[in-house]
Design goal:
Helices cover about 25% and strands about 35% of the residues. The chain contains three helices and eight strands, in the order βαββαβαββββ. Strands 7-6-5-4-2-3-1-8 form an eight-stranded mixed beta sheet. The longest helix has 14 residues.
Amino acid sequence: MLYLNKADYEKILSHCVDGLPNEACGLIGGVKEEGKKYIKKVYLLTNIDASNEHFSMDPKEQLEAVKDMRANGYELLGNFHSHPESPSRPSEEDKRLAYDSKVNYLILSLMEQDNPVLKAFNIDEEKNVTVEEIEIE
């Protein structure tokens, strides 16, 4: 189970809406306790591809986020990105680029702007996708 507070959800949503028509992206850092994952900080990164079909995180911003996580005692829990025109599920490219089976991949669909859908996924080494329950508190 992944826990996200309402303020951080709003931060992700705002970043993704502001990024339209392109995909927006970022990292999530936090702690793991007794099998539960708590997002403690959301890092808003630049999609250097400036594309509505894929994203690449700015490497410099990515490094700064990882340094900040270490300084705060957080670990990388995963990343997020938006799907401006498609459902909240990993695309074939998302699966191909999934580099770590121990983190979550969050996708925010803005296909229906008045009904954003955020889902979290695990993608294993064989590129099998499972849904990770996410609770917005």
